[in-house]
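ASSEMBLY PREDICTION REQUEST
Request ID: AP-0331
Submitted by: J.K., bench scientist
Number of chains: three
Total residues: 885
Priority: normal
Notes: Please return the full assembly, not individual chains.
Input sequences:
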Amino acid sequence: MATTAAAQLPALSDEAAAKALFAERARWRWPEIAYWIAVVLCMFAFPTHLMLIAQVLITGLFAVSFDLLVGYAGIASLGQAAFFGVGAYTTGLIAHNGWSEPITGLLAGALAAGLLGFVFSILVSRLTGIALLMITFGVGLLIYEAAHSAHDITGGDDGLTVGNLSPLLGLFPFDFLGHTAVGYTFVVVFLAYLFARLIVNSPFGLELQGIRENVRRIPAIGVPVGYRYMVAFTVSAILAGLGGALLAQITGTVALGFLSFDRSSSVLIMVILGGIGTLYGPLIGAALYMVAQDRLADLNPVYWNFYIGLMLVIVVLCARGGIVGGIARIERAVRSRWTRR
Amino acid sequence: MDASLNGYALATSGLVKRFGALAAVDGVDFRLPHGARHALIGPNGSGKTTLINLLSGTLRTTAGRVLLKGEDITRLPAHERVARGLARTFQINTLFPALTPIESVTMAVCQRRGLGPVLYRSMKSCRDAIDEAYGLLQQLHLDGDARRPTKELAYGKQRLLEIALALASRPTVLLLDEPAAGVPQHESSEILAVISELPKDIAVLFIEHDIDLVFRFAQRITVMMAGKILCEGTPSEIATDQQVRTVYLGDASYV
Amino acid sequence: MIANFLNIAFSGVAYGVLLFLMAAGLAVTQGLMNFLNLTHAVFAMLGGYLAVTLMNGLGWPFFATLPVATLGAALLGMLLERTLFRRMYGADRHLDQIMLTIGLTFMAVAATTYIWGPNPLPVRLPPYLTGLVHIGFLDLDRYRLFLIAVGIVLITLLILGFERTSFGAKIRAAVDNRRVTASCGIDVDRLFMFAFLIGSGLAGLGGALSVNLLSVDPNFAVAFLAYMLIVVTLGGQNGSIKGALGAALLLGIADVLGKYYVPQTGAFIIYTVTVIVLFCRPNGLFARA
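STATUS: Completed
Returned structure:
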C-alpha cells in the first residue's frame, strides 16, 4: 500500500518546523477562504438579498472586532455595542446634518468610536475579575442611557434618519436595490478584516495573546500591559465603529438598538459559537447567526433564546473551539485516518 | 554613601515592605556584585520572596531604595526594570499555557528588540528574533518541545522554560525563585546543568531550600530571618555559623 | 418637602434592603469561589415567580410562599453548582463562567416566558400588608415597613452568622486563602456547596419579597443583574457582606431619588457614578485601598 500522503510532505527538521510555526499560524485556512468566496457568490446568486448580505458582512466585522478583545487579549466585555453605536450615531449625525460624503462620514464614525475605545482602555487598565466585567457592562449601559436621554440629538426611541448619501467616490450612487451598498460594505469589511489579520499575526498580536494567557508574567518579560490594552481597545473600537457607521449609512437609520445590551450579548454569542480566537470563526458565527435569525424570524423568540442559550452552554462544556474548532477536529480525524492507509 | 553602591550589579539600601503592621522586609541592605552567584536562604516567612518581589518591581516598596548598576530603579514599574536588565523567574510556573515555547520565548525576544508594539509587521518576518529564540531553546534543552503547548510540557521542562523566558531579556541581573522547586529527581539534572552553564557575566541571585544546590552553586550566601538579613558569607562560613544553625536546626547543640 | 424627601429616602432604604438580600449571595460566591455568576438574578426571579404562582394559582397566603420560594431557589442553585459550576472555579476560568452563566440565563428567561408568558404577573397582597402607616408627620407605606423590618432581622442573622459561627469563620478563611483553609482539614468543596445554597436561597427570598415592588416578568433576570453586579463590585468584593449592605443601601436610595427628581437621566447617573467609583477604587468603596 503506497504511503502517498506521507511521501508528499517534505520532512522538515525540528528546527525548521519550530521556526515555521509563525508562518503556519498566519496561513489562510480553507474555511476562511470559503467564507469570502461564498459571500461573493451570494452577492451574485441572490440579487434580491443584497441588504441581508451587507448586514451579514457588517455583523461579521463587529464580531471580528470583539474577537480581538475577547479571543486574543482575553477581555470579556459586555459593552462592545457601545463602540458600534457610537460609530453609527456619529456617522448618522454627520449625514443627518448635511454632510453627505460617505467615506469621510464613515471614517469620522470609526474615529469617534476609536476615541471612546482609548478612553475606555484607561478605565479598564486597573481592573480585573468582576470589577472589569462590571465596568464594561456599566459603560455599555451608560452610553445607552445617554443616547436615550439625549433624544434631541439622537432621536431617542424613534432613532435618527441618515438621509441620502452622495455617490460613492462621486461615481456610484446608492440605489434602492443595494448594489452600491453591498459593494461598498464588502470592500470596507474585507480591508478591515485584512487589517485585523495583520495585527493578530504581528508581534503585538502575540503579546496580546501573552496577556490573555498570563497577565502576571507579561510585565516580567518587559511588556507594558497598559499600553497594549490601549492599542487593543482603540483598534477594536475602530473596527466596531466602522461596522456601526456602515450599517447606519446603508440602512439609512440609526436606532438605540445599535447600542443595546442585546447587541453586546449577541456578538459574544456569535464569537463563541463561531470559534473564539480565530478571527474567521466569528465571521462564520456571525453569518450563521444572522441567516438563522432571518430564516427563523417568524419563529417564537422563546425557542430562539432557549436554543441559543443551550448551544452556548454546550460549547463551554465540551466544544470550546466552536464551529471552526469542530471543523478542525473533524479535519484532523479524517486526515489521520487517510494517512494510516 | 551612594557612590559605594554604584559598582554593584544590584544593591538595596534600607529596603522596607510593610503589610499593615507586619514588616515582611525590615531594613535590608543588600549587595550583588557583577557576575555573582549568590544564594538567598532562610526559613519560611523570612521575607525572601517578598524581597525578590521588591527587587523585580512586582511589589512597591514602603521605604528604601533599589539600585540597578548604580541607577535608582525604586520607582520604576516591573516591565521597565526588565528593559534595564533585571529579569526573574517565578517559584510556581507562571507561563503561557496555550502558547508554545518557541512562541513564548520569541515574544520575549521581540519585546527586548523593541518589536513589542509593532502591529504592522508579521511575526514570520521577524527571522532574527525567531532564530535567537530557537537558539535559546536549544541551550536550555527545550528545542525538542518547541512546538508543544506549554501546558503539555513536563514539569521540569516548564521550569526550564521559566528560565528561558528570563534569559530572553538578556539580563545583567537574574533573580531565580526556587528554580528547582517541585522538580522530580529524574528531571532535576537538566535544571542543574542549565544553572551551572548560565553566562558568567550575569549576576544571579537565587532563592533555594535545597541546601545541596545552594552549596553547589553559590559563591556567597545570605541568610534572611524575620525580614532582616541575619548574616552573609561564603558557604563554609555560613555552614559553621552558630546563629544559622540555631535558626535552621533550632538548637545549637545539634551537630 | 421634607416629608416628601424622607418618604423617598425611606422607599430607597426598602429598595436597598431588597437589593442586598438578592445580591448578598453573589458577593459571597464571587469572593469565595472567584466565580462570576451571571445567573444569580435568575434565582431571585424564580423566587418571585414561585411566590406569585402559589398565591394566585393555589391561593396560598403570602407568608407561606416565602419558604417555598427560598427553598426552590436554593435547590436550583445547589443543582447548578454541583453539576456545572464547580468545574470552573477560579480567575483563569472567568470567560467560561461568563459564557456558561449567560447561556443559562438565556435558557431560564426563555423557559420562564414559555411557562408563564411574557407579561408581568399580577400581584395581590393581603390587606394587612398594603396601605399606609402614620408615624408622626409621615405616611409610610406598610409593605416597605414590613420589608425593612424583615430585612433588619435577616441582615442581623446574616452578619452574626458570618462573624460568630464556625461556618462563617470557615467561609471567611476560605475567601482569604483557599489552599491554606483546605490544608487545615476543612472540606472546602462542601463549604462552597452550602455557601451557594444559602446565597441562592437568599436571592429567592429577596425575589419573593420583591413581588409587590418590582415587576414579575421574564426580563427580571437581565434587568436586575446590572444592579446586583453594582452592589457586589461597589461594596461586596471579596465576600464583604457589610460592604454589600452599604452599597445596596446607597444604590437603593440613589435609584429612588434619581427616579423621582431626575426621571430622565436616573439610570445614567447611577452607571456613571459606578464607573467613576470603580476607576478610583478598583476594590470597591469600602475596601482598604
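REVIEWER COMMENTS: Confidence is low (pLDDT under 50) at residues 1-8 of chain A.
SIGN-OFF: pending second reviewer
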